[in-house]
Specification:
Length: about 180
Amino acid sequence: MLDALQSLALTLSALALAPALAHALERPGKARLSEEQYRLVQRIYYQGFTMLGFAEPVAIIGAVALLAATPSGTAFWLVALGLIALVAMHTVYWVVTHPVNTTWLRGQKLGSAGATFFGTTGSAGAGGTRGAAANDADAAGSDWTLLRERWERSHLARAALGAAALVALAIAVSTD
């Protein structure tokens, strides 16, 4: 059972890392784009996000299950470290990346699920507010370079956290 949980946690962690790492690796090329080119390129991501978007929360669940099944010791603490990195990676998405996405997608035609997820349906969301991060992204919206840097740097941070999670889980699996 533990072997299956270890394999599952590693696989899910790698899947969670993949999109953030891809974005981080694209950064140098995208930095040379004009505003019009950059915004056009950005639109290609939102459809594909749904393919791997599930991986982050599921990876967190997988790491929690692995942590519960791992005996105390070095491997336990490495799994805990991997879990913390996955949670931090997901938190960066919601606090930094998502508000920029919602700002950029306002007025774009999305399917109902995409419009609901990215908060572009016109509803204010839970409790009637979109939150301070979304308001900060709106304020920066007049300067697209601020939004670009916020989005790009968030993915650098997410890639680093995802890589840290994957490495910690891989070492944990190899120490038992």
